[in-house]
Amino acid sequence: MTSTLEARELVVVREGRRILDRASILVRSGEAVAIQGPSGSGKSTFARALATLLEPDGGAVLLGGRDARQIVPTQFRTRVAFLAQQPAMFEGSVVQNLKTGPALHGESLSDAQASDLIRAVGLDEPILQREARILSGGEKQRVALARALANAPEVLLLDEPTAALDPEAGERIVALLRELRLRGLSIVMVTHEDAHARALGGTLYRCERGRLAIDS
Amino acid sequence: MSYAHITLPRLLLSLGLIAVAIALSRRSRLGLEGDLLWGAVRGAAQLIAIGYVLLLLFNHEHPAWVLLLLAVMLVVAGATAARRVEHGPPRKVLFPRAIAAIGAGTLVAVLPVFAAVVPLHPWYEARYLVPISGMMLSNAMNVVAQVFERIFASARSEADQVEALLALGATPRQALERQVRATLRAALLPTINGLLTVGLVALPGMMTGQIVSGTPPEQAVRYQIVILYQLVAVAAVAGMIAVAFARRLLFTARAQLVLPPN
Predict the structure, then answer these.
(1) What domain range is A167 assigned to?
(2) Under a CB-based contact definition with an 8 Å cutoff, are residues B243 and B180 in contact?
(3) Is residue A135 part of a domain?
(4) Predicted ipTM > 0.85
(5) CATH code at A37?
């Protein structure tokens, strides 16, 4: 059972401009949510604030009904995984990348678990030994997904996971997210692509000028 | 003690060395003539001034004067280390932190040595306290300046890496570990290289000075060894403290990366 993730009236102001204007969202356990909006609408800022990587000027993020400010950041981010638009690969092989998250918490990921994870994101095992930084955009996105899954999160938060990919690779990522949702993960995907937002098959929010509204 | 006196005309003669550099700069169109001339005049003026200050201090040795001079040196070192840090916070933010890092590093290197290795009589004996502390302050200043310069620049250029680690549940210390290691290695390398090449490439200034003014070489060497070890300690301590300050400036209490505005 995963926890509910909620953003309650988030406000982010930068240089006098309201980037987020009381943006709210509710992601129930095992639910998929897509946030669609044009570039500059504030959706990436929203994703970062929801991931607690950015401190909002107003409002709150709640996980399982608890204010994120009362949860140790390292714990919150282990439970709510965030993937940037072009995820940074760490120096070393793919398997070393996968082992990073658990190692940060004093745990270890076995080679067998790494193989399971890499297969779960639709890649073949030989990639585990390759240098992570020289992979293609689509491969990096999948490795980043596997790396986040190594922490066994409850919620996956993705900022434009398909933006840097060709259409086919983008569709495969969305299909993969649908599959992960079926395994019980909650998914929040921010995207400017309407087709991908719909293809995720969950609740659809529209983001405009820093405000969020459910698309009916 | 006997040593060759440098008369004023002879001192002026050494300006010829600067003239050589200026001529080369002009010939190669480096545009450094003004800087060279200003540097030569300013450097000489500063040294002559400190010469008189030291003379005054030796003649009126009082703890308050000695401490005042050390405090002035510390402030100048702090201001120098905190200036022109690209991609870093404003000078007024870095200045007190630079003072703390340089001061703490110098204390760690200086106190035990004057307590146990080169005992001072009285404890504020300026002849030892001022020049040796000056060397420590100068090394700490260079290390702290380098730490500030590198750590803020690398946090910016590798922000995506740092945030990816934070997003995986890393603490700020874990997220910045790679950049901290690279920064400290680079900042400590000149001091370590100094240890490795001393005597082989160059005879250090203090040792040379002591020998020239008549100190037996084996004593001058011992002083120099102590100084070298002090320089290592000061670099390590000042560097670590500067890194700790930089880390606190780069992250919020909620472990969010906040880069200083460009």
Answers:
(1) 5-88+148-214
(2) yes
(3) no
(4) yes
(5) 3.40.50.300
